[in-house]
Amino acid sequence: MGSMEIRRIEGVVVNDDGCAVDDLSFCGAVQVTVPAAVPWDDFVDLAVQEQWVGVEALSGVPGTVGEVVGRNAAAYGQRVGDVVASVRTWDLDTDRQRTFAAADCGFTPQGSRVSAGNLRILDGTFLMRQGDLTQPIYDETLAGLGGVGPGQRLPLIVVREAILRAGLS
């Protein structure tokens, strides 16, 4: 198997020390902070290449990281809010920065608290498991695209390529 060139995105900060004694993340996690202006699919591409699990089924979702996080985009059983650790915003009313922990983002199927008119998302921090396989797939469309049955797993790259090839995002 040939080596794959991993694209870097300016401003992305990666902390893969998920086993530090004072860290609240689970062992083996990777924490990735991505500027809001980065195209969402560029981030998904990077995540798949780096084997960060949790956004691969969101391949091809249009918009920037800030827009996709703000609307809590979902596809094929994955939801952005499931991997968000925090969102840093600029509050236009108070003219200051505010950071919301995932629990305070108010993610719903219709959006989030951080998409309010007075807030501008500056960046999102994601907490993802490292690995080369998806979580078990229960979305019938995605399982069909990957040629697997419900509850089976697929390589991240297979999921991304199948979704992009089908143009279903």
TrEMBL record:
It comes from Nostocoides jenkinsii Ben 74. Residues 1-169 form the FAD-binding PCMH-type domain. SUPFAM superfamilies: FAD-binding/transporter-associated domain-like (SSF56176). Belongs to the MurB family. This is UDP-N-acetylenolpyruvoylglucosamine reductase. It comes from the Bacteria. GO terms for biological process: cell wall organization. GO terms for molecular function: FAD binding; UDP-N-acetylmuramate dehydrogenase activity. It holds the Pfam family FAD_binding_4. GO terms for cellular component: cytosol. The keyword Oxidoreductase applies. Keywords: Oxidoreductase. PANTHER family: UDP-N-ACETYLENOLPYRUVOYLGLUCOSAMINE REDUCTASE. Its EC number is 1.1.1.158.
